[in-house]
Amino acid sequence: MKQAIVARADLNMGEGKLAAQVAHAALMAYEDADRQSQSAWKGSGQKKVVLQADGEAALFKLADKAEREGLPHAIVRDAGHTELEPGTVSALAIGPASEGAIDRVTGDLSLY
Amino acid sequence: MKQAIVARADLNMGEGKLAAQVAHAALMAYEDADRQSQSAWKGSGQKKVVLQADGEAALFKLADKAEREGLPHAIVRDAGHTELEPGTVSALAIGPASEGAIDRVTGDLSLY
């Protein structure tokens, strides 16, 4: 089991900002998962990988793929209080789900 | 309502690694909170701040303070698969709780 969080590298977020967006996405996708996946993932150490993509279109494309695969997922829009414009799409989390299922969606992406 | 996540700046984690540790801590502390705090926080936009501290001792001291204030919190130890030694304490999340209660514990810390 794992969860993948894909953040936009093209926004050049500061590292604290990036971490907050990733945490936000992780929590939202976790809540979108069924109880069984939540438990299995927590029991196996809550594995997370943080990946990168360039641009909003890439995140929406991945979200669409996750949707078609029936995977829990969530897109984050920043409230825009600090670095980003309000409503900026900053990150997407997919899972927790099986490693194979996650890799089918995010397999081509590089680590952030 | 907010959640503060305090990460160790002295470990010089890469930004993807840092984001994963922060997400891990955020989710664990969220699960430590009661349902009412969880709902209130989510309803108000899930505010998160990422702060920095130097060293394990600083995190334990803050966790102790959070414990005495009765605030939900969680410390993350890294599994050590990649950048860090196994068992390294990397981050602490406190809340969701009221902004005032969080600030009483983390008020002196700088943004990461």
TrEMBL record, chains A, B:
<dbReference type="InterPro" id="IPR023476">
    <property type="entry name" value="Pep_tRNA_hydro_II_dom_sf"/>
</dbReference>
<keyword id="KW-0378">Hydrolase</keyword>
<comment type="function">
    <text>The natural substrate for this enzyme may be peptidyl-tRNAs which drop off the ribosome during protein synthesis.</text>
</comment>
<dbReference type="GO" id="GO:0005829">
    <property type="term" value="C:cytosol"/>
</dbReference>
<dbReference type="Pfam" id="PF01981">
    <property type="entry name" value="PTH2"/>
</dbReference>
<dbReference type="InterPro" id="IPR002833">
    <property type="entry name" value="PTH2"/>
</dbReference>
<protein>
    <recommendedName>
        <fullName>Peptidyl-tRNA hydrolase</fullName>
        <ecNumber>3.1.1.29</ecNumber>
    </recommendedName>
</protein>
<dbReference type="GO" id="GO:0004045">
    <property type="term" value="F:peptidyl-tRNA hydrolase activity"/>
</dbReference>
<comment type="similarity">
    <text>Belongs to the PTH2 family.</text>
</comment>
